[in-house]
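CATEGORY: protein folding

GOAL: derive structure tokens
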Amino acid sequence: TISTEPFDRDVMSNQIFPRFSLSLLLSLLLSLCLSSSPAPRACIDRDTSGCELNDEVVLLQSHVKVSSQRSPIAELAGSWQPGTNPPTPTGLQVTRLQTAKPIWWLHVPKCGSSFVNALTHLPGMCPFMPPGFVIEDAPSLSVTEVEESTDQWCPGSFSLEGRSSIMSHAPLGGVYNKAVEGHGVVMLRQPEQRIISGYYNQLHDWPYWYYGRRAADLFEYAQVISGCAVRMFTRVGDDGNGGVTACGGPEPANAAEIALAKQRLRGGFAFVGITDEWDLSI
């Protein structure tokens, strides 16, 4: 899902960025999140001229390749027997959330830290959290305090396997099979926009330890940081507290890692959102 094509210097300098990556992410999101409620066939075909439903999501779904595999939610709905109460949309959502616990949030840098509040305020996730508490409103909390608060307020809801807290930017390569598969959630962002945000946030994830200096300009920063999400989906590492992060590693993402990242994103994540389409995602 992350573009690995070389950056064109003129495009970068003018900050004119292609939108094909966002379109790809939108299609991926919709194929994952909407496959349990497919639109009528007229809305699934490439030709949407005869589609009576003009809802934005349905029209976007018309360009999604619907998976032939039934989702767990579809299986649950299909197991309903006459004479029993049929599963309701709310009931299916509750079941899906319970199945996803404990959640492992892959926190890709600059993709929306406030997503943590959407997670903690899901019904039943953090029953002991003070009413109205918002994590971003408490910047004085250290990583340790956030971790301890998570354990106290949200017992059993989040997995801290391979990370210091739910807010950390730890990659999942070392814990995917053990803790992430089936429990992953992630927000992704149009890659060039994510890179620009990181550049203006004190060169977020720039590997000072390797270069021994700051990035010369946005173009050099982009060349090094490009492929951040792919690395986080595939590589082993820590939270980056020592300055070394999977996102900012100097070794570029390769074709095998890209293929593995796509496989894990499609097969192991209970939720995939897009920062650029926040309202649609959340």
Remarks:
- The longest helix spans residues 20-33.
- The mean pLDDT is 74.
